[in-house]
Amino acid sequence: MAVHTDISQLKGISRPIVTIGTFDGVHAGHKAILSKVVTYAREVGGESVLLTFEPHPRKVLFPTQPLGIITPLQRKTELIAATGIQHIVVVPFTKEFAALSAEDYIKNVLVDPLRPHTIIIGYDHHFGHDRTGNIDLLRRYAPTYGYNIVEIPAQLIDQATVSSTKIRKAILAGHIAEANTMLGREYTLEGTVVHGKKLGRELGYPTANIAPLNADQVVPGIGIYAVRVRIDNVLYGGMMSIGLNPTVSHTQDVKLEVNIFDIDADLYGQVLEIGFADRLRNEQKFSSLEELIAQLHADKAAAMAALG
Ligand SMILES: Cc1cc2nc3c(=O)[nH]c(=O)nc-3n(C[C@H](O)[C@H](O)[C@H](O)COP(=O)(O)O)c2cc1C
Ligand SMILES: Nc1ncnc2c1ncn2[C@@H]1O[C@H](COP(=O)(O)OP(=O)(O)O)[C@@H](O)[C@H]1O
């Protein structure tokens, strides 16, 4: 799959079959839509193109609302490549971009750079200043600009929207197994290893403290998880605590910490990818460090069983 970040450099895509959207999560509902686009492109001898925006439009339009992204761009790109889509066009979303009239958007963003053969979108897709553009407006301009419009069945669109919301809520609530089932894979989060209180190694369980790479990504709810940790493309089992560490601290900041099995290495500054396999238990306040350590032994056994 080709990744394009400059819409002025899009020459050479033959008979572009274009769909548009954020596709956050790339879950089963999104895959059903993207597979229609891929199949359609094959049938008419065109190339499949997904036009997406970065940052997420809501981040630019409503900067104070929490975003709760499921797949940051890098991960989304990998997952979309796996669906057979041939081109992804990442359009920078800015306030100026959002101010384009719907007519200018059609001409300047779709028609001039892409010369689409077909645009495949749903009834709920809106674009242009004040979201005034939609499939009806695209249909009206079809004869002028010479593209076809194919509507994605409303049922597919509604299913996809419902799934995104359910997945986001499940992750937030710590219902990881449920989220994983809906995603069709393990939920992953990437982060950099930062310094903590240096207590972990004294307990016999050093824990790499994780600062998420994308601050807008959904962090699973407070609790203890069995995880798979990818370091330099090698996978390790591990156990992760997301919480306030009430036994040893009084902070209100949620900390993400992972103890990785079968590794002893200085990881500060490295980027880890954490795959959440299952939730093991709630966070607890223990009356002594000995009790916490005993629980960590039990967690390790439970995590190893959960990871298989
Ligand atoms: C698998 C796992 C489970 C944990 N469970 C708890 C818990 O239930 N309650 C708690 O107060 N701290 C818990 N912790 C965190 C410890 O309190 C400890 O502070 C931390 O691992 C060390 O922090 P540091 O990396 O900043 O030195 C857990 C840590 C891990 C890795
Ligand atoms: N098996 C392991 N799991 C996690 N971190 C490890 C492991 N082995 C070594 N480390 C290193 O130890 C650090 C965690 O030790 P810890 O005493 O908890 O310090 P901190 O409070 O800074 O996290 C990690 O950031 C990493 O560099």
Automatic annotation (TrEMBL):
InterPro entries: FAD_synthase (IPR015864), Riboflavin_kinase (IPR023468), Riboflavin_kinase_bac (IPR002606), Riboflavin_kinase_bac/euk (IPR015865), Riboflavin_kinase_dom_sf (IPR023465), Rossmann-like_a/b/a_fold (IPR014729). Catalyzes the phosphorylation of riboflavin to FMN followed by the adenylation of FMN to FAD. Gene3D superfamilies: HUPs, Riboflavin kinase-like. Residues 182-308 form the Riboflavin kinase domain. Keywords: ATP-binding, FAD, Flavoprotein, FMN, Kinase, Multifunctional enzyme, Nucleotide-binding, Nucleotidyltransferase, Transferase. One of its GO terms (molecular function) is kinase activity. This is Riboflavin biosynthesis protein. Its EC number is 2.7.1.26, 2.7.7.2. It holds the Pfam family Flavokinase. Pathway: Cofactor biosynthesis; FAD biosynthesis; FAD from FMN: step 1/1; Cofactor biosynthesis; FMN biosynthesis; FMN from riboflavin (ATP route): step 1/1. Belongs to the ribF family. It catalyses: riboflavin + ATP = FMN + ADP + H(+); FMN + ATP + H(+) = FAD + diphosphate.
